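Input (Sua5/YciO/YrdC/YwlC family protein):
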Amino acid sequence: MAKLIRIHPDNPQEKAIDQVVEVLKQGGLIIYPSDTVYGLGCDITNYKAMENLARLKGVKLDKSQFSIVCNDLSHLSNFTRPISNSTFKVLKRALPGPFTFVLQASGNLPLAYKGKKTVGIRVPDHLVPRRIVEKLGNPIASTSIYDEDEILEYTTDPELIAEKWDKLVDVVIDSGYGDNVASSIIDATENEMVILREGKGDINEFL
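Output:
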């Protein structure tokens, strides 16, 4: 059964964050809040957890496209190839924010990402996932939680999420209602940025 942990979105309790980090360190899967929709994630350095995440999404790990959630841009050079000054300026202006930037992957990514030419980077404008990543010491893999409902693409109520995913994940974080619009995905592998998915946020404000 998944543990439901309530964490205040603006003032996350250290003890609760520590609980989540401990679960991640042990290879657990979590559902966490963000500035867009609730996400499903695990520790990117734990290969077994990454396999479980892929299985849950119904994809093979080597075919998966999990983005990584960072708490800021300081670790960017660990996971991506060098980027131009102009691209970095856009990222600095737009993040934290509701964007996933697709960048060229470096060879330093953990084993589960080996062979990937690109990687999606997220720095959500939400304290809870950023504190978790900061405490964990490395990013978490991330994917959105889709809803099978024909009208609602994303479930916004954490209690309903906990009910549905109860036997599939280890922790569901309740930080109040989520949004039902996913992040905008921006291809930043070239000098000219290309919008791959229109979601929350307008990247043109930062270009």
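The longest helix spans residues 14-25.
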